[in-house]
Amino acid sequence: MVKVGFLVEGDTEKKIILSDNFKAYCQSRNIEILPSILPTKGQRGKDIFKNKEKIEAFIEILKDNGAEYIFVIRDLEDLTCVIDAKDEIASDEVNKIIVVKAIESWFLADTKAISSYFEQDSYYHDLPESIEKPFDYLKRQSIEIKKRGISDKLIFAGIMLKNGFSIENAAKHSNCQSAKYFIKKLESLKPLTPKGG
Fold first, then answer.
1. 11 vs 8: CA distance, rounded Å
2. What does the pLDDT look like over 122-167, one tens digit per residue?
3. To 10 degrees, the CA torsion angle through 175, 176, 178, 181?
4. H-helix or E-strand containing 3?
5. Does any domain span residue 194?
6. How far apart are CA 197 and CA 193, in angstroms?
7. Structurally, how many domains does the chain consist of?
8. Is 98 inside any structural domain?
9. According to the model, what pLDDT value does residue 78 have?
């Protein structure tokens, strides 16, 4: 098994990474997710990744726990391009995953799960990564379609997971390149050669 550690921007990303769906997907590809998702609650936010000293400390913790590869997941949000967002992550030791525009874009890209949430045969958004504020968009859509809003990102993530959300389904969307890139990077991982072997 390839051991992988994660540094994430927010609690929603943590919930997705630790979900049964994602763990099962990783296990099927011989990947073990380390249970410590860093930074811890209360310390999260993309500004942590800009601090070289802090990110290096988190990397060391994950390596000490056996991580062979480390992924940093953060949203693009208001930056103009993925390269700028990657440049803000102050380490070259990690795999940098930039979600375009925010993690809720991936919810929209999983047509099966979002259709289930909206209780429709087929709810489809052609360009999920083009929406500036996908959570706000989902709130408006929920009011329009279900006659009730969404108040909390983390609760909504749990609801989407119950509706079968998976990153690999989001990656199948023709216009969700950031999810595709993440899945491609995961599937390319190979066990590192043991030292001295």
1. 8
2. 999 999 999 999 999 999 999 999 999 999 999 999 999 999 999 9
3. -80
4. strand 2-8
5. no
6. 7
7. 1
8. yes
9. 84
